[in-house]
Amino acid sequence: MTLRFLPILFLLYSGNIFANYEFPIEILEYVDNTKIVAFINKKDIDTTLSWSPFSNSPPLSISKALKNVKQSLSKKIKKNTVHMVGIELKQIPHHKKHWHYLVKLAYEVNNKQEFHYFVVLMNGKVISALKNPESIK
């Protein structure tokens, strides 16, 4: 008799679990016809410094952003084989005063050039981005 209430209790309990979950914010960019996706927690965006163009310099300099990327590189990649291809300053979608750097690096693996992308928030946090992610089928 009490087993018939089990599905109802399960639904109520699972609703409480998902009510407190914050879905990450997706940043979708295109660099040289390559789709780049990064997922950022809303808390990370809220802790970054806001910036309004034309009012002053960005809160995080390019040199500091690149230093943070260099520190976050994987130990599998030899740092002397890595070189920067490009860096762009971009606005975080739907967050008018929050910006990020998009960094493109190149490195050699088995005599083949590979690219890796990073998103650097204005608080210095480095987030690895995915290149050409497969869509969920």
Task: Characterise this structure.
The protein starts with 5 loop residues before the first helix and ends in a 6-residue tail after the last strand. 23% of the residues lie in helices and 36% in strands. It has one domain (23-131). The chain is of the alpha+beta class. It has helices at residues 6-19, 42-47, 62-72, and strands at 25-31, 34-40, 83-91, 99-109, 112-121, 126-128, 130-131. It contains three helices and seven strands; from the N terminus they run αββααβββββ. The protein has a four-stranded antiparallel sheet with strand order 3-4-5-6, covered by helices on one side. Strands 1-2-7 form a three-stranded antiparallel sheet.
Tags for this entry?
single chain, 137 residues, alpha+beta, four-stranded antiparallel sheet, 23% helix
Strand runs, count: 7
**Count of alpha/pi helices:** 3
Mean pLDDT: 81
Seen as an oligomer or otherwise, the chain set is single chain
> Looking across the biggest beta sheet, what order are the strands in?
3-4-5-6
